[in-house]
Amino acid sequence: MEHTPKGTSVGVDDPYEHAERCDHCTDDGRCRFAIERPEANPEFARDRRAAEYACVASEDGVEWRDCPHFRSRANERTCRRCGLEERRMAHTGERPLLEEHHLSYADDADDPGDREGTDGKPAHEITVVLCRWCHAKVHGSWARIDDDASPSASALAAAEDRRSRELDELGFRRASEREREER
Predict the structure, then answer these.
(1) In a 10 Å sphere around its CB, with 0-12 CB exposed, 13-18 middle and 19+ buried, how is residue 117 labelled?
(2) Is there a smaller number of Cβ atoms within 10 Å at the N or the C end of the chain?
(3) What is the pLDDT of residue 115?
(4) How many CB atoms lie within 10 A of CB 21?
(5) Domain residues of the chain, as ranges?
């Protein structure tokens, strides 16, 4: 199983099996990285320009993992492992129910064009969304992302508490009632 730079489990054997499309890939299949940041990797940008900025993965026999600038950061609003839905509370400092979980880490290279890891393979940032509870289990080295899991009782309680507060906020009360409560 893959591990973080600090040695804890990330919960998968192959992060690319859980990666979505590249964040740099536009809807029409062009490479946004080469278009917007050619100075970061001039050789890569030249190659993409010669191919009319077509995404590397659009070429025959080429996969996402072959692109030196591949990045797939999650943006879904449910836990990938147990399905718990996010319930954000506006204007509070409460910790979110869902967190971004790294399956693979981009190297902190001085040269943004250099994305090679210590083993010579490209190091890409790949994330999925997990609830806080699944995130802790995965990093505890005993749970996997693709386990058949249900939300824990404490996760469901936290989500239900937020849902109740949302409904209270949406409820209609006359101004005279609110004024009396504030006194």
Answers:
(1) middle
(2) C
(3) 46
(4) 13
(5) 20-69, 72-183
Selection from 27, 68, 64 nearest residue 47 by Cα: 68
Helix, strand or coil for residue 179?
Answer: helix
Helices (H) and strands (E) in the chain, counts: 5, 3
Q: What is the pTM of this model?
A: 0.77
Q: Tokens at residue 3, please?
A: 């591990």
Long-range contacts from 147-150, C-beta under 8 angstroms, 24+ separation: 147/81, 149/81, 149/82, 150/82, 150/83
Cβ(69)–Cβ(41) below 8 Å: yes
DSSP letter for 164, please.
H
- Bridge-based pairing state of the strands 125-131 and 98-104: antiparallel
Both tokens assigned to 91: 């204007």
